[in-house]
Design a protein that fits this description.
Elements lengths: L3 E3 L2 H19 L8 E8 L2 E9 L5 E8 L2 H11 L7 H10 L7 H12 L8 E3 H12 L1 E3 L7 E6 L16 H7 L5 E4 L5 E7 L2 E11 L8 E3 L4 E6 L2 H4 L4 E7 L2 E7 L2 H12 L7 H21 L1 H12 L3 H17 L5 H5 L1
Parallel strand pairs: 7-10, 10-12
Antiparallel strand pairs: 1-6, 2-3, 3-4, 5-7, 8-9, 9-10, 11-12, 13-14
Helix pairs in contact: 1-3, 8-9, 8-11, 9-10
């Protein structure tokens, strides 16, 4: 079984260039990149410029830009040029053509909209299979089993982990999802409250899940005050949300910078939760295992020291963590005995 194949050096360079330009575009966004228009006012004989736009939350805003001078006129001219993000399209198309893995159009549409609303700036993290696909491009490989999924999983560290990300941004996540007009509706709980998942009734296989770490309320769902969305706490999630990385996901229509878990932590976390998958979740358990094995094999071949450090952190977290991980690792040994991953890792 082929777990992964190396991307060509040209494809790896294309991804690196796309990531670099995408990160630059993210940092160089100006008011001119917002959807809106400039308007001028004359006060006591002096001309001043303002910019009118609609906030991600839906509120109409008018921002003072400055007096009519050369610097402001340059900003007006910039508005006439394509936005910085539009320059990513040819780079993304080139990366796809060279063999990098792309994201399904409707998935990128959702992720891009959340990015526009500041979800990732507020500390949101893209997890699950979409993160796994991003790892392939990040590590310079093409996975043998990409396991495309209709689910999009997002996570936030909640109140338990301090990430190197700004956490004082208010994001109207629910409004962002509604603005897509894709028919995504929040699943209600038995108590009538909105749940931590969104489903599209006309496309039931397509869903969004919002997860977080355990808090004082245990596994009870709670609404995050900054993200304005209900989150579902899960055991062991904090392990994945330490050392968050940045990556770019894309297809031929463009690219979006996202936060994703560190790939080594993602791999070991998948083994921790593997034993938790039962019954109806058997297919997800199988997907967890193949993703973990693929990443572990990559680290065995390329970055042994990095996975060892992550393994030591996991084993120092207590018997409960260690026992669950051992069960997951035993499943790897049983399913993929020829890889000898258990012997290598422990």
């Amino acid at each position: 079984m082929i777990l992964y194949e190396e991307l060509t050096s040209t494809a790896q360079t294309a991804y690196a260039q796309l990531l670099d330009v995408a990160l630059t575009a993210e940092h160089l966004r100006t008011v001119a990149d917002l959807s809106g228009s400039f308007a001028s006012k004359t006060v006591k004989g002096h001309k001043y410029w303002y910019y009118q736009y609609t906030e991600p939350s839906g509120n109409l805003r008018q921002t003072f830009v400055g007096p009519d001078n050369e610097a402001v006129r340059s900003l007006l001219k910039a508005k006439e040029q394509p936005a910085a993000t539009e320059g990513l399209i040819p780079l993304a198309a080139s990366a796809v053509a060279l063999g990098c893995t792309e994201v399904l159009p409707k998935h990128l549409k959702v992720i891009r909209r959340l990015s526009e609303y500041g979800f990732f700036r507020a500390g949101g993290v893209l997890i699950g299979t979409h993160a796994f696909l991003a790892y392939g491009n990040m590590l310079g490989v093409h996975w043998g089993d990409a396991s495309l999924t209709q689910d999009i999983d997002f996570a936030h560290a909640g109140k338990n982990i301090a990430l190197a990300l700004p956490s004082n941004v208010e994001v109207e996540t629910h409004e962002a999802i509604e603005s897509l007009q894709m028919g995504l509706l929040p699943i209600s709980t038995l108590h009538g409250k909105s749940g931590a998942s969104y489903l599209a009734p006309r496309d039931p296989g397509f869903r969004l899940d919002f997860l977080t770490t355990l808090h004082r309320g245990g596994e009870e769902k709670y609404e995050h005050p900054q993200l304005n969305v209900t989150l579902q706490p899960l055991k062991f999630m904090e392990f994945s949300l330490t050392q968050v990385q940045q990556a770019v996901i894309f297809n031929t229509s463009g690219a979006v910078v996202v936060n994703i878990p560190h790939p080594a932590r993602y791999a070991l976390h998948k083994l921790i939760i593997h034993g938790e998958r039962e019954g109806a979740f058997a297919s997800k358990a199988s997907k967890d295992l193949i993703q973990a094995v693929s990443l572990l094999q990559y680290y065995k071949d390329h970055r042994t020291w990095e996975i060892k450090e992550t393994y030591e952190d996991l084993m120092n977290r207590g018997k409960g963590w260690a026992s669950r991980f051992e069960r997951g690792l035993s499943a790897v040994e049983k399913t993929y005995p020829t890889l000898e991953l258990k012997q290598w890792l422990t």
